[in-house]
Specification:
alpha/beta; Spore Coat Polysaccharide Biosynthesis Protein SpsA, Chain A; Serine Threonine Protein Phosphatase 5, Tetratricopeptide repeat; eight-stranded mixed β-sheet
């Protein structure tokens, strides 16, 4: 018997995305949405599209509770459950790929997820997401940045299906103010959860609460369960940024170097060290770090990966290092790489300046 797919979601005031979302998920056998209090016509539009939907309002909203409630709408004969937010959309053909690769013993699947897009339309943060799971085997946990947790005491493997592509184009006008109190609640409920301690420290940094961020991120690093080096490296860089905002350059440099010691296989520590020394007018050291960064050719599909490290900006900085070092040949060569991905007028003018300076030396 063929497995049936159910896409499920929670929604609140998503009318501008509903049709795009539904067009991408209607390949599924069932589509379910729990509306958590829309007032913009989202709930009514979902009913017009014959989506299985109910409305439930919460006095205290938690993402895990709402998602678990949304799972109650999933028909019992659905085998494969796919959680897709309304501001996300699949590339067509995804359901066929999923059914062809799903086996009787499959419990979860990962897929390629583009979390955001750059202003020029190119991909920003890309990683393998994992919100596809077998029905009746999982529940959602954590008030925010919620995750799927297996309800059974069993070992299982996750299959990777990078040929399935999900895109995210968020409504940037929506407030995310509830994330901080929900993260604080999550850490209060489980202070040893390294993932959410890391997220809370990052959120404090985003809110300009730098001292709190430093303490929280150092707590993350002290946890025995905090073993993922990429995330540890990110915590160290965030600590460095906080010290930078507090004008403590000694500790900023120290924690940037610790980040590099933690992970020398990703570009981010090299990039931030390159920026640090550039801002100190130490152009030789800055150039050394940027050149080391460019030796890393493989971009890991992780939410830690910063798209700025893979665009024109590092080449722009490196070209300026060579300019200040009066190595105009390398400045021209490097800025040409920047212009390949960003034909910004300033970059083109800089190249003209470098070429003129080189020619003046040859006269």
């Amino acid at each position: 018997m063929e497995n049936k797919i159910c896409v499920y979601a929670i929604a609140k005031n998503e009318i501008k995305f509903v049709d795009r979302w539904f067009d991408s998920v209607k390949e599924a056998d069932y589509v379910c949405v729990l509306d958590t209090g829309s007032t913009d016509g989202t709930y009514e539009r979902l009913k017009d599209l014959n989506v299985i939907t109910q409305q439930k309002k919460y006095d205290l909203f938690r993402f895990d509770v709402a998602r678990n409630d949304s799972m109650k709408l999933i028909p019992k004969d659905a085998t494969i459950c796919v959680c897709v937010d309304i501001d996300e959309f699949f590339v067509k053909g995804w359901s066929k790929i999923l059914k062809e690769n799903w086996k009787d013993n499959t419990l979860r699947a990962r897929y390629r997820y583009t979390w955001n897009f750059n202003p020029d339309g190119s991909e920003g943060v890309v990683f393998m997401a994992d919100k596809i799971h077998k029905n009746n085997f999982f529940k959602w946990t954590h008030p925010v940045h919620e995750i799927l947790t297996c309800c059974k005491n069993i070992q299982y493997e996750i299959i990777d299906l990078p040929q399935i592509q999900l895109n995210h184009k968020a409504d940037t006008t929506k407030s995310r103010a509830n994330y901080l109190p929900l993260l604080e609640l999550s850490v209060k409920e489980n202070p040893l959860d390294d993932r959410n301690v890391h997220y809370l420290g990052r959120e404090y940094m985003f809110h300009g609460m730098y001292e709190k961020a430093i303490v929280t991120l150092k707590t993350h690093l002290s946890l025995k369960s905090a073993v993922w080096k990429d995330e540890r490296s990110a915590s160290l860089r965030y600590i460095a940024r906080c010290y930078g905002y507090l004008n403590d350059k000694i500790n900023q440099e120290k924690y940037l170097k610790l980040s590099l010691l933690e992970t020398n296989h990703i570009r981010e520590p090299y990039y931030e060290l390159g920026i640090f020394y550039y801002e100190k007018n130490d152009y030789l050291t800055s150039a050394l770090f940027f050149n080391e960064m460019f030796k890393i050719k493989e971009r890991y599909l992780s939410y830690i990966s910063d798209p700025i490290c893979w665009g024109s900006v590092p080449y722009d900085y490196l070209s300026m290092c060579y300019y200040y070092l009066q190595d105009y040949d390398k400045a021209i060569q490097t800025i040409n790489y920047a212009i390949l991905t960003n034909d910004d007028e300033r970059l083109i003018k800089n190249r003209e300046i470098f070429i003129n300076l080189k020619n003046s030396l040859n006269c």
